[in-house]
Specification:
Keywords: Signal. It is built from four helices and nine strands. By secondary structure, the protein is largely without helices or strands. Strands 1-2-3 form a three-stranded antiparallel sheet, with no helix packed on it. Strand 2 and strand 3 form a beta hairpin. The longest helix is centred in the N-terminal third of the chain and has 16 residues. The radius of gyration is 60 Å and the shape is elongated. The relative contact order is 0.12.
Length: about 270
């Protein structure tokens, strides 16, 4: 039988082709298991069938809560109510222009109460206003030098001006003011021990001296001043010296209340009740 191939037709595998075949075989074997079996899917695709895992976004850590240092609170001291005004003096008390009682230590006041007699007395000002301590008045004529708010410098004109409007009243709007009587002016200046005894007998002075309103409550007193009253034609003179042994119920005749004509200028201090 003739040969399938003639000797000259037998294909010659060249060296370079053999090398290529070996490389391809090694590639196929690398896709097989250790026992030589191959994964057809892997061999056909060349890609692993494992589904890749989506990376999880890490949760950022919670920042620590800052420590807040509380602002120290300064304790508020309790409000101490003002002490009630006190009147420790055995005879006189200070009041303001609204009618309110003041403490004994008050340095400004416009009214004084005489607790023994129950009278409220005007305290003069020193401001050239209506109630200035230096103004003078006369019951008749043109004598006197007083506030320009008055058309005439008479005691009656002064009383009317103090009472209208009520804001001018030294002891508060509820107290209308008037001229004091002769006796009221005298007793304002006399100490309590000079008042008549329970049996009605008059007491007598022990030393020669003058009697004037207490300076601690009436600092507005004018030296050698004469003050008008409403009951007679006399002016009270607080600078008169009363001789020792004089009866206090007769001090008027000892020079403390000389007669005064209506044209004579003098001072005025009002009672407000």
């Amino acid at each position: 039988m003739p040969e399938v191939f003639a000797p000259k037709e037998i294909p010659v595998i060249k060296k370079s082709g053999l090398v290529l075949a070996m490389v391809l075989c090694a590639s196929l074997l690398s896709a097989c298991d250790c026992d030589g079996d191959c994964d057809a899917g892997s061999a056909s695709s060349g890609v692993s069938a494992t589904t890749p895992t989506t990376p999880t976004t890490p949760t950022p850590p919670t920042p620590p809560t800052p420590v807040v240092t509380p602002t120290p609170v300064t304790p508020v001291a309790p409000v101490t109510p003002p002490a009630a005004a006190r009147c420790a003096d055995p005879r006189f008390c200070k009041f303001d222009s609204t009618g309110a009682l003041l403490d004994d230590s008050a340095t400004s006041w416009s009214c004084v109460q005489d607790k023994l007699l129950g009278n409220f007395w005007e305290v003069k000002t020193d401001d050239s206003g209506l109630r200035d301590k230096d103004w003078t008045y006369a019951k008749a004529g043109a004598a006197g030098a007083c506030s320009s708010t008055l058309t005439t410098c008479s005691p009656d004109a002064y009383v009317a001006a103090v009472n209208t409007p009520t804001t001018n009243r030294p002891c508060g709007p509820a107290r209308a003011c008037r001229l004091p009587t002769h006796a009221e002016l005298i007793y304002l200046a006399l100490p309590a021990e000079a008042f008549p005894q329970p049996d009605g007998n008059a007491k007598r002075s022990t030393v020669a001296r003058s009697y004037a309103p207490v300076p601690a409550f009436f600092p507005d007193a004018v030296a050698d001043a004469f003050y008008f009253n409403s009951s007679d034609a006399r002016q009270v003179n607080y600078s008169a010296v009363i001789p020792a042994g004089s009866a206090f119920n007769n001090v008027s005749d000892e020079g403390m209340a000389p007669a005064a004509g209506p044209e004579l200028a003098g001072h005025v201090r009002l009672i407000c009740n």
